[in-house]
Amino acid sequence: MVRKGTPPIAALSRTLALLEAVIADGGRSSIAALARANSVPPATAHRQVVSLVAAGYLGVSDRGRYIPGPRLLGLVHRLDVRQVIVNIAASQLHELAVATGCVVQLGTFENEMVTYRIKTGEGAGSLFTQVGMQLEAYCSGIGKVLLAHLPEAQRRAYLAGGPFVALTSRTITDPCQLEDELERVRARGYATDEGEIAEGLVCVAVPIQAPDGQVHAAISVSRASSADPSAGLGTILDGLRAAARKIEQAAFGTPDQQALA
User: Fold this and answer.
1) Which helix (H) or strand (E) holds 220?
2) More confident residue, 139 or 125
């Protein structure tokens, strides 16, 4: 565990900054030019680059420019953004569950199904979902959010692939009606499930969204239905959106950090 107040290693920080600059440059500029642009002495930049090449984090193109190396590319291929989000989200969602007194969940979209990755909160044990379980996407709040933010071609292929079985009397089973529902979800930024996946259960869900707009996961608050399903919706949405922003910032950086990337 890193202790608070532990100072960073300045040389490592400078080397990583140069690595980012080389990757962002895409092999267009010389190391001398990159050094000038990043206020690094050219001799220092060359030593850093030699070390990064030796370690496999940078490679050399046929034009003699520096590009991402095999070791760096291997790390990228092994990176599971969804799992990173799950690891970051656990504590945030536990806090949200305590604050709302409801069950809070996180799900991702895989093989046209929702995979539940986190489930926490009072009453979590009595809710039928389980971590690792896969359920149909069209009838849950998390599923609607994930479907609504799929690329258009993928979303249309999903809608054309029915049938959509009614799990309750409220389940949307008509593809055209489901498409309209997903359009509403995209427009308002959240989805609801009012007894569509199970009688007596309502939930609200919002996306976890990357800076490029891609939605890698969704989080939801579930509770027993009441006479007025919209009761407390604003407060729950505020809590969900605040948690989503914190998760996004931890996973992808603050807006200022993203602008520098």
Assistant:
1) strand 215-224
2) 139
